[in-house]
Design goal:
Blueprint lengths: L6 E2 L12 E2 L4 H9 L21 H13 L4 H9 L6 H17 L5 E6 L3 E6 L2 H14 L1
Parallel strand pairs: 1-2
Antiparallel strand pairs: 3-4
Amino acid sequence: MSELPFQLTCQTKLATTTGRLLVETHPAVAIWLWCRSLSGNGNDFWTYKGAKANRSIESYWDQLLPIWHSLNIEAVSSVLEQIAPPKDDDELDALVGWVLGALYSIQHESVGVLGDESTGGILLPWDEEMFTKFNKFKSAQF
């Protein structure tokens, strides 16, 4: 089997910003983490795919844009201003993944990888409580 042109990383923070790195994201969890405080019931932002969706893709976009712009990252904001809003949940997932990756590539403190090589890892918005609890769980299990 030939060598892949990228390397999977599970580093919480990147040690380098050079090379071709691949990191897994979880858009549904990311959306929930970013938007949960915007509603009295954080679970309002959980179901957004298909027939189970309880709000429109446009409403998610309208909630996420100000959050992303508030990070004051010109490289992210300038791209978001140039693209059309997502038409469906697949496009929303792709855009959330792109924002996560863009923030990770500049080592922004608002994102990190939950997990590591032993557990698998996913890139998510930083949530101190969740990351701490996961690390305690991991320490007890492994």
